[in-house]
């Protein structure tokens, strides 16, 4: 690990408690939007079904699964895919409350690391929503650059990681990716020859690797363990 020069951070459930602060209200909002658009159930039943589906299989597209589970009311003229997109948009493209806060150890950790490494932030979701989160958390200035990956367009983090390699003039072996998703930033980092550190907490804490390139080099439970793990 003495070769590390660049650190790439994820945002949600990595630098702040997205699961505890935002996921509950967002889930209710997207379920309500789908019910109002024609999903054949009530909001509470949709929420309970989503939670059960996600617990059983966190990789499953639960927007589509809700349509499969409940079907559509007779007066709904949306296609299954259009009804699914109603839920996805309501979940990803939303107003973020300005009271959200980073994890207690986030600012001290970023402050310490910034003096020793180049720090970058790569976050997936709706760019506008993710930008609101970063602004309210007050963390933008800690990073050399921030990259937004638009999930609705099917973008992955690979393009952003490649841009970071070019911008930082780093080799893959001198970069570590830190995040909570083994199927996103951990897998992409491993495939590109970088180091990877999985923070196993939050919404996707129960998501287990399903292939070799989803196994991280390091695993921690919170960002406060990051510096000790590297023995810095």
Structural class: alpha/beta
Question: Main β-sheet: number of strands, strand sense, barrel status?
Answer: 6 strands, parallel
Secondary-structure element string: EHHHHHEHEHEHEEH
The first-level CATH class of the largest domain is given as: Alpha Beta
Helix percent band: 40-55%
Number of helices: 9
In terms of DSSP E residues, the strand content is 5-15%
CA-atom Rg in angstroms? 19 Å
Shape: elongated
Which secondary structure elements does this structure contain, and how are they paired or packed?
Layout: E1 6-9, H1 18-37, H2 43-56, H3 62-70, H4 80-92, H5 106-114, E2 118-125, H6 127-137, E3 145-150, H7 158-168, E4 175-179, H8 182-191, E5 195-199, E6 218-220, H9 226-230
Parallel strand pairs: 1-2, 1-4, 2-3, 4-5, 5-6
Helix pairs in contact: 1-2, 1-4, 2-3, 3-4
